[in-house]
Predict the structure of Branched-chain amino acid ABC transporter substrate-binding protein.
Amino acid sequence: MRLKQAGTAVVAAVTVLLAAGCTPDEGNRPGGDLKGVGSGSECVIAAPVKVGLVLSLTNGAAFAGEYQKQGLELAFKQLNERKGVHYEVLLEDDETSPDKGVAVYEKLINTDRVSVLVGPTLSSVAFPAFGDAQEAGVPAIGISTTAEGIPQLGDYIFRDSLPEQYALAASIPAAKQALNLKTVAILHDSVDEFTSSAYTTMKETLEHEGIRIVEDESFKTTDTEFGAQLGKVAAAKPDAVVLSALPGATIPLVKQARSMGISSPIVGGNAFNSPFMIGKLGEAAENLIVGGAWSASSGTTGNEDFINAFTAAYGRAPDQFAAQAFTAAQLIDVAVRADCDGNREAIKDNLGQILELDTILGSLSIDEDGEVYQKPVVQMVKDGRLTLLDR
Ligand code: 1QQ
């Protein structure tokens, strides 16, 4: 993990930029005086620090985007109640579309000239959008983008979204132990970048755990009929099903599986961390197992206050997506206050040096690639609620 390795980081950044034949665009720098006086809780910055949020507020990924919006709104409201640094938040809807995501990223970078970006919601939107942030030299934080390779897009790219790789490395062994798993069937959406990446990780983890894959079927993001694939799964009689899908396909797929008599536990990817999806599935959601970044039952620093404040503000309990979004605002504030500087370079440098920070996700660090480190949780749906699975 990196702490104050600025020399190497700068050389690496320059090398990458020279190799790409470009330098961060000076013309779109944030306006106002963003270099403050003092540091930490005493830091005072004259100009507002502009933060661009890009979230899926409509279409397929709005199930997560709406919670993220509220988590971020709550966090920046609380941060703005503190003295010294004022955050001006600019929110854009990427409509769950890579093209729209890139368009609003470019607007926030070049027209609004934000200091830092948060989101987008989906990995498939993040891949092209983060490329633009990297090229422009604007730090960007993924809050739910769990696919492999996201932080490696460049040294301005960070995430506090637990990679699927680590979530599955926890959930598959936990399921194996709790359910004495020997065989599974895998089903996956082969179009979406997050679900395809998770599928590869699932297979690797299953192989590593010595669990035999007795059926391996795929489908498309927009599919709604899964009879053919589920027929093969039923015939293979696996101890459990491992599913990599977004909610749009998960909901009909799990319902059809249950109505065809497939009652085995289903181990899923990050989309399962959604109470929206669990609510839509009703009874069919029982025994779904998922690894994730946050649990309402975790005794992490500030978790209870966060849950209470969120519930009071929005009339519903937060989910993992809200918790990760809330945490991103905290990371930005820590990075800004570290050198009392709201400029892009300072935020980028200090985000990359976060080490064992106490957050509602637990103790959290960010390594030199911009990758997050935290302890995963494993949960199972019991009586309609995500409940910690004993490990
Ligand atoms: C990704 C995800 C999605 C499930 C977030 C909503 O993990 O796209 O990476």
Summary: Residues 1-22 have pLDDT under 50 and may be disordered. Residues 62-81 form the longest helix (20 residues).
